[in-house]
């Protein structure tokens, strides 16, 4: 390499210069040169080690002797723990009580003390601040700290050192530390480099803040890409992102799952959902470009690979839709002999069935939930044209998250007896007693007409619930008292089946 990176930053006392690999299959798919910056190969399988170490190494002797503390359930926790071990410092990590055992074990393996507190990062942060005040320990922020940002920026230095003619860089965004540091280095070196941030559609705090021209706090964030599920970005990271980043785009969970698969096919490594954001963003961005992508050299930062084994089932289920291979529909059939055969003959023939559920709704009609392996959008349109031509009543659910996360796994159908039914989605902490606490909080004030839990192998699971309630305001005030995140559900799948 042209630069002696060992003399650039103390980060390299502990982090590796991660490989920059050309992704041949992605390059062919998108018609340009795509490179993967393999931060998933760091000692803690995440870029977070860089910022954590850079911050901790910069502390004064007095601060180091007092010990360090942070709040995190994810990659930052492991980065801080390993950095403290390297520097022989006392470290305390406050983690939610919902943290999977594998993550707690990883942090403890580096010698850090783990305190379990609350159900969320906010709970942990507040408690860590209390402990810091009581003990005099130094708090290491996950993203909104100049030294943390500086540490993450070393990734950009490595990219420029190895691929000086890079044209585009795609960077995941959570709290903004990674993109703030990298974008400043990239744009300072070459203003022509296009820097694009990528967020999940349901956790786009930076995108919304940039649009509002001020830091906003989201009411609700999605839980799938938990590594970037941040309600409020940093004040420092917002300013730098606003100054140096060209564009922030979003991707949905299906596109993230498809990216995880594409990365696996290229590297035989499995990224966590947040770690695959950049590839998902690049795939979406270049697929929609009207002009040719000749001359493009794009780098995608694979930011992490700390995924639990249990989450792989969920990823696999969503991958087909994310790669536009599967389409799902709700179809209403007249309840008469030969109706199902007619559907197959007039619509389904020529397509493989990935899923099929049938439920008698009334004596006059039945509801069908069906998945078809259509392969691409053009073939999907063939199915839709057939449904229209033969006058079937249907709803395309291919982009309906509630269909994919709940309805496809449920049996039954519309309740003929439920009155004034309202549907809500909740993020339930994955800990014993979570449901009991919820039921105690609502005090039997409203009848629960539907309940479906869908675990995803993370710190929280998603629950779909139906309530009978004439007064929505009273219901939602009661739900707020329960203390769990929720939002009202308005979904095509709910209308069609429930």
Spatial separation of the terminal alpha carbons:
60 Å
- Low-pLDDT segments, ≥5 res: none
Shape designation: globular
On the 0-100 scale, what is the average pLDDT? 89
Strand count, sense and barrel status of the largest sheet are: 6 strands, mixed
Q: What is the count of helical runs?
A: 20
The strand count comes to: 18
Indicate the radius of gyration in whole angstroms. 24 Å
Q: What structural class should be given to the helix and strand makeup?
A: alpha/beta
Percent of residues in beta strands: 15-25%
Describe the structure concisely for a colleague.
This protein is of the alpha/beta class.
Keywords:
498 residues; alpha/beta; 20 helices; four-stranded parallel beta sheet
